[in-house]
Amino acid sequence: MATATELRSRVSKLMPQAHADLAALVACQSVADPRQFPESECLKAAQLVIDKFTEAGLRDTRLEPTPDGHPSVFGHIPAPDGAPTVLLYCHYDVQPPLDPTGTAWKTPVFRLTERDGRWYGRGAADCKGNIVVHLTALRALRGNIPVGIKLIAEGSEEQGTGGLEAFVPDHADLLRADTIIVADTGNFAAGVPTLTTALRGLANVTVTVSTLENPMHSGMFGGPAPDALLALISMLATLRDAHGNTTIQGLESGTTWQGVDYPPGQFRADAHVLDGVDLLGSGRVTDMLWSRPAVTVLGIDCPPVVGSAAAIPAQARARVSLRVPPNMDARRAQDALTAHLRAVTPWHAKVQIEPEASGQPFDAATGGPAYTAMSHALEQAYGRPATTEGQGGSIPLCNVLHQTFPDAEIMLTGVEEPRCLIHAPNESVDPAEIEHMALAEALFLANYPA
Ligand SMILES: [Zn+2]
Fold first, then answer.
1. Ligand 1 centroid to 74 CA: how many Å?
2. What is the pTM of this model?
3. Segments in 100-259 forming alpha helices (H)
4. How far is the CA of 157 from the centre of ligand 1 (A)?
5. What would the 3-class secondary structure string for 124-145 be?
6. What is the pLDDT of residues 364-382, one digit of tens each?
7. What residues are neighbours of ligand 1 (ion), with CB under 5 Å?
8. Strand 113-115's sheet: what is its strand order?
9. With contact defined as beta carbons under 8 Å apart, do 428 and 196 qualify?
10. Where in the sequence numbering do the catalytic residues fall?
11. Of 262, 280, 329, 450, which residue is most buried, by most CB within 10 angstroms?
């Protein structure tokens, strides 16, 4: 087995190859929406994934059709006797350029271009940079891999059409693994090795308040006649306390985050908070962000100011978003939000509450051998201890993987640090992140079973 020093030097020598691999992948306009880009572009990317992973030592690498019509790529190396298997996840489709005027990108969207030490192009980080991490790690090990490997590269992750999510439960034997590396996140910042261990869930509702059969003249009836908009506003106002803590009856809101610290000044800048305006909540930024429920009013239907009449609103409606932290059931949180809104409805106003489809949060198991080995590999690769962060958005696939393989350790890693501007124009990747993450993954694969 190669030593850490040997692997470091091999990965470093593989970086020109990593650049070439990434350039070829970025050149495929693999937006998985045939209304925007021809399907052949996705198939071209899929074929590249097949060819390159075959070169890197995977067998039977092939397309696997999924129910949404976009194939995933599967390949594998059987596990040596008694050794565990690691499933490597990534996706080869990308977000559209988001550039209707053709002026938002400073470099060509689908041509990998170096500028100020970073590599620019759609998908350079999300998720083709992570494909190259898997590839480079495997190349560095030169076939001398003490574990079984399986690869699943999804073809429509950015579309949210759920092809792979539907595929996984029906192909549990094909994909079964002891450990799953979901390489579609990134470090807290470049150079700060970070495992993403929590993804927030979602439990939105729409609440409609009615008080009158129709709007009534506010001069003739205002006073005793109940104002539906004011009723709604008073209900919404109970969802946060004076400090800005979310205060939904029955939901715990004092949990703290154990991983990385997010300095308030940095958060203010990242979130574009106006000077002098407070951050919310009595916890630290990371507590509020990843450990506690967070309520937001996304929209209100009521008469707009221009065009409003001197009339008492008869009905008002709001869409309320609830982000659900790990260790809280999204369905239960949605029920609590619904019960809370009913309980605070004033004046016996008529209230109707419609739940949206909820999404469970994800909480990575952090006590197992793979997690320990990956933390150690990240520390070796970066020369500093690994930390943990959460993420706002959900990755439904993680929940499907967890349900299908309840005993597998699922780890979220990748090269998508904040400066990558994933999903936005001018997406880029820091090549040092590709190098460090590839080394970490190679070290993990070499040492995990020991
Ligand atoms: Zn992604």
1. 18
2. 0.90
3. 128-141, 163-170, 172-175, 218-221, 228-236
4. 7
5. CCCCHHHHHHHHHHHHHHCCCC
6. 989 999 999 999 999 999 9
7. 126-127, 184
8. 113-115, 118-120, 428-429
9. no
10. 93, 157
11. 262
